[in-house]
Write a structure and sequence with these properties.
heterodimer; A: 315 residues; mainly alpha; two-stranded antiparallel sheet; 14 helices; 70% helix; globular; B: 305 residues
Chain lengths: 315, 305
């Protein structure tokens, strides 16, 4: 491919003759220009709203940020502050508990839903559509809905139902013991139907004759689940689950909307702690250090799982 | 969610379950009338109550004169539109408009950017391609929440340009325009389109734009549906970004405004419920129209890993 060097403005005229070779998947200069032009919008937006903020965050994390007084370089002090801060460590604990509870809970419930609602009947399809609603509703709205359901007086909606079965009313989001679990329930509620769809797709992929021959061999339903269904589903679920667990490390909106980190910091997660430092106390340096730590951890975990998954796939 | 790949199961004759259909589902649900069936129906009702009835309660509450969380019912006791009138006074329609503008503009930008980028990344080979793909994947690790604090600074003073986007809809629209997930989905889909499609057109000297819009894009409808609904949900779900992008409360989107209204003691819970319903309707409509794409997106993501 020999192309006379042309400046961008001239390229169109220069190739008007249309004499280029039909080389596929290997561009000449005009095509190279087109390639980068097509990438340009993504590059500009990515630069301005992803990468500049990222580098800015890393830079700020090394400074004591003082508006008007000027920033002072402090090295890794902000990181030390984060890692020795009791409230950050509490928040880390809450984040992990909440993440695990939501991820595992949503998996178990989603699996149950999929088993219950598997089938081609029209009624089942309608039911599946209805059950999927929590997934498509904005998290902020989900939060408002549950704040009403969790209304902590004895005649609140959920407490009324608890009363029917003879249970004591709970404080839900207002109690330091119950708040974190209440948030986890909301996460499971809005995450389980999503998992249901994944698992349903896996279920339809299972060869029906396996079930039949298991039936011929006199296997119980439980054995059938244990030895046919679960092994068939495992590959599609494991990776999705791991990524969901990693993503849960940065869960923010549901906690922020439901409790804002309270009561008494009992639901403070990494992100809410970071934001109360960054925006309310204006401690931007420390908040940035927390953000960078979160980013590094999620990055390492994600890359790690992907590598593991790839190695497994090769085997 | 409708799968018609396998044949529809035979209609139950009388109450005797037909033997073959017992193997149509993992739990071996039998279609006929039996204790199993009763159990399944009961469980289905329970599940429906848990996942769908809260919505009914919210909608009913929005139309009820007497809304306190303790008196919420599945059907409004005294039907009224007063909550929506009060919502109008609180400027909720303005917030809804903000939300719709941001969602519409953001989604349009996001899909355009993604299609363009995907076309480059999938249909051509070029030096630095792997690096670009890596950067795209990296943006997926940088959602608005993680970079929120520096992003709010950048929005207030764009580097090099020195302009502030804060308080304009662009402050939300532009950042959501870049979404690695959408680029990734689109790229993977375009890779599947055989290159022969382009060759004839290329011989005729068809330019890249026309190639993309007349040859490639019409084949990408399923993927467009997927990034359409996922993108809409991603934009509609934004909470932190509109919060940090706003100059004053009138810039808020509906989702942000809801939690502000909740803390306002002069506003009754009825207005809050009306707002929640207003915020639910657009996502509900999009979901009902693009349900198939949604399911396709979820399941393809599941197998991809």
């Amino acid at each position: 491919m020999t192309v006379t060097p042309t400046r961008p403005a001239e390229t169109r005229a220069a190739t008007k003759g249309g004499k280029q070779l039909p080389v596929r998947r290997r561009g000449n200069r005009k095509q190279m220009l087109a390639i980068w032009l097509f990438l340009l919008p993504a590059a500009i937006l990515g630069l301005y709203f992803k990468f500049i903020p990222m580098f800015e965050g890393v830079r700020l994390s090394l400074f004591k940020v003082q508006p008007f007084l000027g920033d002072v370089f402090v090295g890794f002090d902000n990181y030390v502050n984060v890692l020795t801060d009791v409230r950050f460590m509490d928040a880390l604990g809450h984040t992990v508990v909440l993440g695990l509870a939501q991820t595992l809970g949503a998996l178990v419930v989603g699996f149950g839903l999929a088993l219950l609602l598997e089938g081609q009947a029209r009624s089942l399809w309608v039911l599946r559509t209805a059950i999927f609603l929590p997934v498509v509703t904005a998290l902020a709205v989900v939060g408002e809905i549950w704040r009403i359901l969790y209304f902590p007086t004895a005649d609140g909606p959920l407490n009324t139902i608890l009363g029917w079965v003879g249970l004591e009313p709970l404080q839900f989001l207002n109690g330091t013991d119950t708040a974190l679990w209440s948030i986890a329930v909301v996460g499971i509620w809005s995450g389980a139907p999503y998992n249901m769809v994944i698992i349903l797709a896996g279920l339809t992929g299972i060869d029906r004759t396996l079930y039949e021959s298991a039936g011929v061999d006199g296997a119980t339903i439980w054995q059938r689940l244990r030895y046919i269904t679960l092994p068939a589903l495992r590959p599609s679920i494991v990776i999705v689950l791991t990524l969901a667990a990693i993503r849960s490390l940065r869960s923010f909106t549901e906690v922020y909307v439901l409790t804002g980190g309270g009561p008494a910091g009992s639901t403070e997660v990494w992100m809410t702690r970071m934001y109360s430092l960054g925006f309310q106390r204006n401690d931007i340096g420390v908040a940035s250090a927390a953000a960078v730590l979160l980013l590094v951890v999620t990055l390492l975990l994600t890359v790690g799982t992907q590598l593991l998954a790839r190695r497994k796939a090769q085997r | 969610m409708n799968r018609s790949s396998t044949k529809t199961r035979p209609k139950p004759q009388g109450s005797r379950p037909s033997s073959s259909s017992r193997f149509d589902s993992a739990l071996g649900w039998s279609p006929g009338f039996s204790t199993n069936m009763v159990l399944r129906v009961l469980l289905c009702i329970l599940v429906f109550c848990i996942f769908a009835l809260p919505f009914a309660a919210i909608i009913s509450g929005a139309f009820d004169r007497n809304t306190s969380p303790t008196e919420i019912t599945l059907l409004p006791k005294t039907f009224t539109l007063a909550n929506f009138e009060a919502a109008a006074q609180q400027g909720l329609w303005g917030y809804l408009l903000n939300s719709l503008v941001v969602a519409g503009g953001g989604l349009l930008l996001q899909m355009t950017v993604s299609v363009f980028a995907a076309y480059s990344l999938s249909r051509r080979k070029f030096r630095g391609q792997a690096l670009v793909m890596l950067l795209v994947l990296l943006t997926m690790m940088l959602p608005e929440e993680v970079i929120g604090i520096p992003l709010s600074l950048v929005l207030g003073d764009l580097p090099l340009l020195g302009i502030s986007l804060r308080g304009t809809v662009l402050a939300v629209i532009l950042p959501v325009g870049i979404w690695g997930f959408a680029i990734f989905i689109m790229t993977e889909f375009m890779k599947e389109i055989p290159p022969e499609i382009e060759e004839a057109a290329r011989l005729d000297g068809v330019g890249e734009f026309r190639m993309l819009f007349t040859m490639i894009l019409p084949l990408c409808k399923p993927a467009l549906g997927v990034i359409g609904i996922f993108g809409f949900m991603m934009v509609w779900d934004q909470y932190l970004l509109p919060l940090i992008a706003a100059n004053d409360p009138s810039d808020y989107t509906l989702t942000v405004a809801l939690s502000v209204l909740r803390n306002d003691t002069t506003v009754g819970p009825g207005v809050l419920l009306a707002g929640a319903v207003m915020a639910m309707i657009p996502s509900l409509l999009v979901y009902l129209f693009l349900q198939r794409s949604m399911i396709r997106g979820i399941t393809s993501g599941a197998t991809k890993g």
